[in-house]
Amino acid sequence: MSLIDDYKAYAKHDESSLKPFFKIHLYCLMIFRISHLLYKWHLTPLSKIFWFINRIFFSIDIDPGARLKGGVVILHGTGIVIGRYVMSKGDFKIYQGATLGGNQGKESVYDGEKFSQPIIMNGSIIGINSAVLGPVVIGENTIVGTNTVVTKSVPENSIVVGINKILKK
Fold first, then answer.
1. Residue 101, in any domain of the structure
2. Beta-carbon neighbour count of residue 76 at 10 Å?
3. In this structure, which of 70, 91, 120, 154 has its CB flanked by the most CB atoms within 10 Å?
């Protein structure tokens, strides 16, 4: 279950199994998981209530339609925006002010499936105030640097800085 994976991601580097319960953004993810479940059950008005709770209490906008696998870690989450069609294929970390979404009417194909917003692969880190926009794939173990704008797909084990400038690790 995604929520258990989220808990494990927060507990990974803590010596106490109770410590993640003191991480406020774990609660934000719990609220998102409830919102997403209601969205999948076509209870959109109820899912939007939980979405609104996240917006008010945490200043985090994760659309109920986003398909985030378990293991997401939000660090200093104020101002994070994650769009409706964003997908993750594993655990990743995201810092404050980051935006995932936006497609300007563009689509692409990944694994035979059309997508219009970012796909974030396992082990990636999305830096402070960065923007990952449009139908792009962020490869495994990739770091998107602070204040970076990404509008093109990034290969695995890379570092992205500036505007689409890709460096190898």
1. yes
2. 12
3. 120
R_g of the chain, CA atoms, integer Å: 15
Domain count, the chain: 1
In a domain, 169, yes or no: no
Determine, yes or no, domain membership for 63: yes
Q: Which residues contact 73 (CB under 8 A, 6 or more apart)?
A: 6, 9, 10, 25, 91, 92, 93, 94
Q: Within 13 Å of residue 88, how many CA atoms lie on the same side as its CB?
A: 25
Which helix or strand (DSSP H or E) is residue 74 part of? Answer: strand 72-75
Cα gap 40→42, rounded to integer Å: 5
Domain of residue 158: give its range.
2-163
pTM above 0.85, yes or no: yes
Q: Give the domain CATH number at 108.
A: 2.160.10.10
Q: Which residue has the tokens 């800085």?
A: 161
Tens-digit pLDDT profile for residues 73-107: 999 889 999 999 999 999 999 999 999 998 878 89
